[in-house]
Model the fold of this input.
Amino acid sequence: MNEVRQHIPTFVEHDEEDIKVDQFNTTEKLLEIEWIKHWSTSPDFKHYMITERFGKPATLMVQTLEAYWVVGYIKNGSNIDLPNWRD
Done:
């Protein structure tokens, strides 16, 4: 089982318990998580992507027509079937 932790920017005041953490076992299940799926409902949504950093959680990102957004951090990104941000 894998885990994704929601990214909340530091300029947003929040408590640690406000951050959502969900379990999943496939890329499809990851993209069905409500707070992640929400991004794909925007008319500006293009696609999801990840970037892996050696020894650190993978970063789940969204590309919209105008920007890239960090959505969350995946405990183990090696089996996630999404485009890599650097490709």
